[in-house]
Design brief:
The structure holds two protein chains of two kinds. By secondary structure, chain A is mainly alpha-helical. Chain A contains eleven helices and no strands. Chain A folds into two domains: 34 residues; 181 residues, Orthogonal Bundle (MetI-like fold). In chain A, 41% of the residues are buried. By secondary structure, chain B is mainly alpha-helical. Chain B has two domains: 50 residues; 232 residues, MetI-like fold, CATH 1.10.3720.10. Chain B contains 14 helices and two strands. In chain B, strands 1-2 form a two-stranded antiparallel ribbon. The longest helix of chain B is centred in the first third of the chain and has 40 residues. The chains are: A mainly alpha, B mainly alpha. Chains A and B meet through α1, α3, α4, α5 and α6 of A and α2, α4, α5, α6 and α8 of B.
Chain lengths: 298, 310
């Protein structure tokens, strides 16, 4: 190696081994600093509402987690909304992602563009549009039910709307990386379309579906802007927190935020590692079978 | 089938599948995608496209919520909106531009490092960038008010050490608002950049080296041009949403830093829906123009792939 190349090599390693990783760590620290403060302040022995000072360590906010009634109710509403929105959006969005990833049909490009618009449009615009649309439809009723009266149902429709696009693109990304020969094989073996879907298609796209569902849940439980516009009198966790921000949030907000954070991270880690574990197991089984067959042949 | 030749698997299947069955399957293949797409397409049409269209109709209404709104081709909602709130529109444009620039500069090296040197831990490194998504946007912004508070955990010690004058403050300044928005959009900027960089074939960089290009030249002539689609996707996913933000200006800023989103929310508070719709539609029109140009030139894959990676 010439002297110049050696020097250049050393320069490269300095950048990739030290400078860039250090910079990456700094950026992650910046990204996580409010999260760290949130977790820390969940243990802050603050008298009354949270302010910027540290008063000492306590566990009482964990003990009195549900002491603030309005906050607890808002959190329950948020969880209900998130579960329902996730279920519906995951079903609808997965079908859509499957179709977009697998087939070429008239309208594929238009659908792609609409999803793209739905993802990149500012939330405030979506929210304002839905608000005026729901106000227009608010008098529609089916029996005693008013599906478009501002409140829980309109928040749910809105959450499904923004989640569907994300689920669809997540599933589409998964489908696009698979080949369809397994399904064709199933059909050649006279499996009905339903059987093919349940036994072949669904298991293969499952990681994408799970990732989409997680994303939908996270988006729903965090959403503020659209929810705020279409909520009527209903309050959700982020809405309640925002409303109390000017006067100072109760410490329980930090605790609930921390618990949601850990639950979300755990769910994401589990859903990311499960398919890998299954894959390793599957490969081991294949290996074993191959060895057995080889042994039987010999 | 030629006499004596062994029939292929396809031919056996064809012969043995009843004609009707085969026709049904072919029809199914043509109808299936529409059936699968229909519920989602309906949802996006009924709760996204039609509302946007209806918002445009309302933006040309006149009247008040108490007396009812009437469609009167009230273009004055646009002219008053744009003249009265020109400052806030320009401020949104200014803040969003600075935010997008900062976010790109901050995240490009990060995405570059993960894409080329992340190795086996790539997805872990990427996951750490997404950690903020597991905490509500509102809570994160409120925590920044604690971090940046005048006598808080950062400024307090610096002031008591005499490193900063006691009247120094960050909250309620444009710096706090721009910093807050940049913080909130960093992951949205990083993801499409990563997707684009990750796709670059490492052998192209090797080729650059083999041709005696130095690192800077390799970067400028190979990596940067190939990452441009990601840069534009990141721009789109950061700039437009940042234009519409009002939370940071509300919580970290002051009336002097209010953006167009704050004005829209004020009209929402006053239930003056026509002006609110007109102000929002201006943002939507800006997005439509940018997004159409973008999709024409580069396709929609990078934006949606970036979002999917998240």
């Amino acid at each position: 190696m010439s002297k110049g190349a050696a020097r250049e090599h050393r320069g490269t390693t300095r950048w990739t081994r030290h400078i860039l990783p250090t910079y990456y760590t700094l950026v992650i620290m910046y990204l996580c600093s409010p999260i760290a403060v949130m977790i820390l302040f969940g243990f802050n022995d603050v008298p009354g509402r949270v302010n910027a000072k540290w008063y000492g360590f306590t566990l009482k906010w964990y003990r009195d987690l549900f002491a603030v009634r309005g906050l607890t109710q808002a959190l329950i509403t948020s969880l209900e909304l998130a579960v329902l929105a996730t279920l519906i959006a995951t079903v609808i969005g997965s079908f859509m992602g499957l179709a977009l990833g697998r087939y070429t049909f008239w309208g594929v490009g238009i659908m792609g563009f609409i999803i793209f618009l739905a993802i990149s449009s500012p939330e405030i615009v979506d929210g304002v549009a839905q608000l005026v649309w729901f106000v227009k439809l608010s008098s529609i009723h089916i029996g005693p039910l008013k599906p478009f009266a501002l409140g829980f149902p309109t928040i749910l429709w809105a959450h499904i709307m923004f989640s569907v696009s994300f689920v669809a693109i997540t599933v589409r990304a998964r489908v696009a990386g698979l080949d369809s020969s397994l399904e064709e094989a199933a059909q050649d073996l006279f499996a009905t379309p339903v059987q093919t879907f349940m036994k072949v298609t669904l298991p293969t796209i499952m990681p994408g579906v799970m990732a989409g569902a997680l994303l939908a849940f996270a988006l729903s439980i965090d959403d503020f802007v659209i929810t705020n516009l279409v909520s009527g009198q209903t309050s959700t966790f982020p809405l309640w927190v925002y409303a109390s921000a000017k006067a100072g949030i109760p410490p329980q907000v930090n605790v609930m935020g921390s618990l949601l954070f850990f639950a979300g991270v755990s769910a994401a880690v589990v859903s990311a590692t499960l398919p890998k574990i299954a894959q390793v197991r599957g490969e081991k089984r294949l290996d074993r079978e191959r060895r057995e067959r080889a042994a039987a042949a010999a | 089938m030629a006499e004596g030749s062994v029939p292929s698997l396809d031919e056996i299947v064809k012969v043995n599948t009843p004609l009707l069955e085969r026709r049904k399957r072919r029809l199914g293949k043509r109808v299936a995608p529409f059936g699968l797409v229909a519920p989602g397409a309906f949802w996006l049409a009924f709760f996204f496209l039609i509302p946007i269209g209806y918002m445009f109709v309302v933006s040309l209404n006149s009247g008040f919520v108490t007396t009812g709104f009437k469609f009167t081709w009230e273009w004055s909602n646009y002219t008053t909106g744009l003249t009265t709130y020109k400052t806030q529109y320009l401020r949104s444009l200014e803040y969003a531009s600075i935010v997008t620039f900062l976010a790109l500069v901050i995240t490009y090296p990060v995405a570059y490092w993960i894409a080329f040197y992340g190795g086996k831990r790539k997805s872990t490194y990427l996951f750490l960038i997404l950690l903020p998504f597991f905490v509500s946007f509102i809570i994160r912004t409120i925590e920044w008010t604690f971090i940046l508070a005048d006598n808080g955990i950062v400024l307090g010690p610096l002031k008591s050490l005499g490193l900063l004058p006691s009247n120094f403050h960050i909250l309620a300044t444009p710096y706090a608002v721009i910093g807050g928005i940049t913080y909130n959009f960093l992951p949205f900027t990083a993801l499409p950049l990563y997707v684009a960089l990750e796709r670059i074939d490492a052998s192209l960089i090797e080729a650059g080296k083999d041709l005696y290009a130095n690192k800077v030249t390799t970067f400028l002539k190979v990596v940067w041009p190939l990452s441009l689609p990601g840069v534009f996707a990141a721009f789109l996913l950061t700039f437009i949403p940042a234009m519409g933000d009002f939370i940071n200006a509300e919580l970290l800023g002051s009336p002097g830093t209010h953006m167009i989103g704050n004005i829209i929310m004020a009209q929402f508070g006053n239930t003056y829906y026509p002006l609110m719709s007109a102000l929002s539609f201006v943002l939507m029109a800006a997005l439509l123009v940018l997004a159409t140009v973008y999709a024409r030139v580069l396709g929609t894959e990078d934006v949606t792939a970036g979002a999917a990676a998240g």
